[in-house]
């Protein structure tokens, strides 16, 4: 990205997206942060995210949208809770106060409102505010991206797809970052099972921008969901040089690549899981952390011994035990405390969630904690203790509601696998039959999956 091509006050006004500041530098830094967010990449020529956030504050400390984008990015990263982190909570309050004391545009006012709602865990209302912006300003990419992330955290697959579909006709190829909408739209199509269309749209994005890591990511998902393992392996390898540069998403794309190996040959994964947990130590990103949790849990279900890795990962997840920003994160932290045999941490996480479920307020994730989060945690604890029938009893009634914990179908598939393993290991004949039925169902949706075949063989061996 060339600093010269970044948009100043006049350029934003010309696009109908006026920013309330007189500082051209602040406007350019806003563009730089937005661009890096969309590309999933720290651009070192601009000082990366951190450098640009410092620069925007220096250029105009009272620039409302500068606060919205920098505080908003910290919020959507889900690495910190405003309940516990006073610095983050006060950054949200400061943004609201600045907005109240200035004459800013209605669009910017909605941005502040959305960010504040998101900070309280009210993801649905935050999305409503972002959609209100997009109604009048369909090319406001920050509103589109923030909404996309929030829908993802809610498992709101259809709104995530339609949010992009509604604005696409307003975008023209000459507009900055136009091609990246293809990846966003493709991901929504993929999560709503339009696999062929999702792949087509992602490939259109890659034809325009070969290093669009989110479009690569979408194709990786398509191959995963269709169990096209060899195609997925070939695709990720052939484009590795392109997507590797997106440092924020690269580790996650490697995680997708690794899933194909688990399908084909499980043992090679003990090496890849190490690479993943080392990676999340260096990035500190929540996405990389939950990927490492998930990878180890999958390997353990496959019979790979990973106990030393759990202890290492616990150092990263344990400080987040009380965060409870998303149920998805909580469940992944629990995998680690269970794997590391850190029962006090597991218990604390569960009790914290039970407490928040009593008075969730407007926090959408806490509202779901009692009906979904807590029983899923309990199911994992039962499984860990060898009470497989108890795990099935907790998990089976939730199977069509697990989508509400957020994440993608590929990420949540871990819980489908957990239910199958629990059912097959249960002493209860009815559960064993259920396990076989779930495998038949899985085979119908993703034919030719080596993992499903392996599980079917295990089921036969267990229940002869």
UniProtKB/TrEMBL annotation:
Stretches assigned to coiled coil: none
Residue ranges of the TM segments: none
Keyword Metal-binding attached: no
Entry-linked InterPro entries: TPR-like_helical_dom_sf, TTC38
Record-linked SUPFAM superfamilies: TPR-like (SSF48452)
Domain of life: Eukaryota
Family designation: Belongs to the TTC38 family.
Protein's name in the database: Tetratricopeptide repeat protein 38
